Amino acid sequence: MVHRSHPGRSRANTLRPFVAFLIIASFGILFAGCKGPEDSGSQDFVFTQENLDQAHQLAQNAVQQATGSGTAAQTGTGTSPYLEPIDTGSGASSQGVVLDLSMLSTYNSIRQGQGAAGQDVYQVTNTFLNVRKTPSTGAESVGTLHNGDNVVVMSFPNAAWAQVKLSDGTQGYVSIRYIAKVTTNDQLAAEKAKFDGQYYVHYAFVNMRKEANQQSDKIGEIPGQTIVKPDSISGDWAKVTYNGQTGYVSKSYLAPFMPYFVVRQNSYTLPVLHYQLSSGQEDSMLKAIADDTAALKQKGISFITFSAFRDKLIAQQSNGTQINDTSAIVAVTGITPDNVKKVSDALLAAHVPATLFINTKDVGLSGITQKTLLTLSANGFDIQSAGHTGDDLRALTNSQAQLELQQSRKILEEMTNKPVFAVAYPLGGTNERIMQLADQAGYLFGLAGGSERTYTRDQLLDIPGIDIFPTMSADEVVKLVRGS
Fold first, then answer.
1. CB 455 within 8 A of CB 463
2. Overall pTM surpassing 0.85 (yes/no)
3. Within 33-148, where are the H helices?
């Protein structure tokens, strides 16, 4: 359902959906501690007078904080509303949605590939790093970088400093010791070969002499940290050219020049099996999940969630941990208040950790409750977003799609107390615009349509989800996962 806003309505009316959400949340706190249907088999909730007084006070406080008055708002249907209504025009605002975007730069760094042709992408390895106007610690700072940020290295003026270009086009200099070249296992040898034969002066200075002996005339000095590429090396002497002069320096004052490297996996053979539940087919689809995963386990395939995938990618930022190609992800969409228990029971019986993508319009006291979400999370399931309404994001305006992405993430994070970083695009539909909005909303992953089992870092917001149907045999699914 699309909620429309109307010009000229009062502030209290504008905040009414948000107030409703606060009231619902207030009752939810009490419900979580009360005996409910899951405990007793009864449809009745038992409240004491103290419970009711507490609920009334919480609701009143919520209304007063949101509206600045004691006027109550209507609670609606009991499902989580939008924090702000979606407008049909392009002027809708998402300013009321406050998201934690502290991982945004890390996620952007994770999705960074090897850079465009001719670019050398380096990653910041220190907590923070000043970008200087000139290659000197006393120079003016023109910017600050943080751990995980990427920069393009344009040159090495010496062995202590790198000339870099930031994402906004700013150029400056950073200390080499706090950056590392981003590369892959199969490219590491080629990257190192670029620096073959390069040395730097690892002393305060070194004398350059006319001949290769200590008694020869001194014809100049080469400052410390200067990078040189000897014309030849013979014994203890290196023949070098510096400032237009060619002479000899003692090799004991030279050390090989080589930047640091971060070796990252750039492509992943980690198939995502997408099981879309639809009315009337839940039982057959859940049976398919059980049969498929059992057959895959027999072939040595293990299962991880998107949450585990995220953790491994973050670890790769610093230690190059590899993700093996004998894993797969089970992603389930189409979860409703009516089938959520069936889904949980089936996955638990199959001993399969899965990522469950939830439409937040179905979350609330009369839908998928907070207690249910917390139980799913405690049972090892990964709770992620399928948007709010389930509408195709491509058909929405920027403001509408923004609200879908931001508010569904916010609601689930508040309900589960865990980060939400993956979105299953409704109908598998996405494009560059939607992926950009997902990025801005703080998502690392986006699950789309497709049939590929392998994808690269720069596809993490467009991961192909292999659609699985009840009519497929377990053998067919095994072939899809193993690529045979």
1. yes
2. no
3. 37-40, 49-67, 104-111
